[in-house]
Design a protein that fits this description.
two-stranded antiparallel sheet, Arc Repressor Mutant, subunit A, Rossmann fold, 44% helix, 3 domains, alpha/beta, 8-stranded mixed beta sheet, single chain
Length: 461
């Protein structure tokens, strides 16, 4: 069979398998809070974000496979039609947002276009055109002629304002900036100067110099909505049960969620969460119900054990919280794993800064890794993959972020060679740090790197 048709059939079977998973979950009532027998809940999608991890993976599989099938079947005319629709869809969503039309549409009960147009002070004929094109993408519904109501998708943009801010960032910043990429190349040529970008041609400044609070809020919302929550994948990024009884240290913790996620990795492991975020530390301290109220300047590392609740088996009892400044020498010795997650690059964190942070953290752990040959530093980070390594959907997301960084600031995503260059510099006369294993899941945007210390053999005289 032709490889293309083999891939076609594979995607079809993937959709069938994933659809069966979702159907079984729905029949068992797993989505009862999001789906009723008559209609969708206005507050959530068909598969709610709080569904089981298996259901969420099935949803992702269907989206990715259906996207791949469209790519395989699309001809030039189909591509142009798709692009035209996406352009008009974005323009229509911007129009709805700019005139605050979404807030004028009821969440649950249909109302007439005439009433919405009058309330939003927009032409009724224009509103009908816009609503009907967005409805083709599942955004708003026309349950009966002349009436409009929110769909499950559009309702979330009302109930979660940051989604609306992210949408406006795409329409008002990303879109005009990307359209200046050709002009920027003609004007500046090849350059890494952050002042010579498509963004600068549009806004005559750099993103980190923006003082407009509205624009900053929109950018922050976009970063939040596109962020990857690695905590949900903790169980699958490493074989935790192979460690037996030991200690896992999460360094530079980015999320309070890890405090509840870590204990579920293995019942035999003890955990330490280290952070230099004062608010996160204080929040964890509050959760611990400890009498220790603040960090002591005399003690560089504060440790707070999360006690069990009276009469309840609290898994967080196996988690200790420490305050540790990023890059400081690691004081916890003998741990089996030191877990380090590095968020993706953004306007506020460029390549040089992230590599400097990585270098500092690896150097701060060199001593404890060298002292315990079995200890591993597990680094989870966003690296631009080789073509075809990830699923089409996941690779497209990473490459979109990579080119967006280029358009905004002349930055880029990190690549594996960047990490290897840093590792190559961390060595002394007794040993060095080496990459012993690299793991990539086609459906995750991160690469998992396992790093150990290699001790040089001593020469006997």
């Amino acid at each position: 069979m032709d490889p293309s048709w083999a891939s076609f059939h594979e995607k079809v079977f993937d959709i069938q398998d994933a659809a069966q998973v979702l159907s079984q979950a729905a029949s068992k009532g797993d989505f009862a809070d999001a789906v009723t027998k008559t209609n969708h809940s206005p507050n959530d999608s068909l598969v709610p974000s709080r569904a089981s991890s298996e259901s969420l993976r099935a949803r992702t599989s269907i989206l990715e496979s259906s996207g791949s099938l469209q790519t395989m079947l699309r001809d030039p005319r189909g591509l142009l039609e798709h692009l035209m629709f996406q352009v008009q869809l974005l323009a229509s969503l911007q129009w709805l947002s700019s005139f605050q039309v979404l807030a004028c549409i009821p969440i649950e009960h249909p109302t007439t276009f005439e009433d919405v147009a009058e309330l939003a002070s927009v032409p009724e004929s224009q509103l009908i055109r816009v609503a009907r094109i967005t409805a083709m993408a599942g955004f708003l519904r026309e349950p009966q002629p002349g009436h409009v109501v929110h769909s499950a998708l559009s309702a979330q943009f009302v109930l979660e304002p940051f989604s609306l801010d992210a949408l406006l960032f795409i329409s008002d910043v990303v879109n005009p900036t990307s359209m200046q990429m050709t002009r920027a190349t003609k004007t500046y040529g090849e350059t890494q100067n952050p002042d010579r970008t498509p963004y600068q041609l549009v806004f005559h400044t750099t993103p980190d110099s923006v003082v407009d609070t509205k624009l900053r809020r929109q950018h922050a919302a976009f970063d939040r909505l596109s962020a990857y929550n690695y905590v949900t994948d903790l169980s699958s990024i490493y074989d935790w049960h192979s460690l037996g009884a030991g200690t896992v240290v999460e360094v530079c913790a980015r999320s309070v969620d890890t405090i509840t996620a870590l204990p579920h990795l293995s019942e035999k492991l003890e955990f330490i969460v280290q952070t230099n975020d004062s608010r996160m530390y204080d929040h964890m301290t509050l959760l611990s119900r400890s009498d220790q109220k603040s960090r002591s300047s005399a003690t560089p590392v504060n440790t707070i054990a999360l006690p069990t609740s009276a009469g309840l088996d609290n898994p967080t009892a196996r988690v200790k919280v420490q305050y540790r400044t990023d890059g400081e020498p690691q004081t916890v010795q003998g741990a089996a794993v030191y877990l380090y997650y590095i968020p993706p690059l953004c306007v506020a964190r460029n390549v040089e800064q992230v590599l400097a942070e990585l270098d500092a953290e690896l150097r701060s752990h060199y001593s404890v890794l060298r002292g315990c040959p079995n200890a591993t530093m597990v680094v989870v980070m966003h690296l631009l993959p080789e073509p075809g390594v990830l699923s089409g959907h996941m690779e497209a997301n990473l490459r979109t972020l990579d080119i967006l960084l280029h358009q905004l600031t002349n930055q880029r995503l990190l690549e594996e060679q960047d990490v290897l260059n840093v590792l190559g510099q961390i060595r002394d006369s007794t040993g060095r740090l080496v990459l012993v294993k690299k793991s990539i899941d086609r459906h995750r945007p991160v690469t998992v790197l396992q790093i150990k210390a290699e001790v040089f053999p001593t020469l006997s005289l």
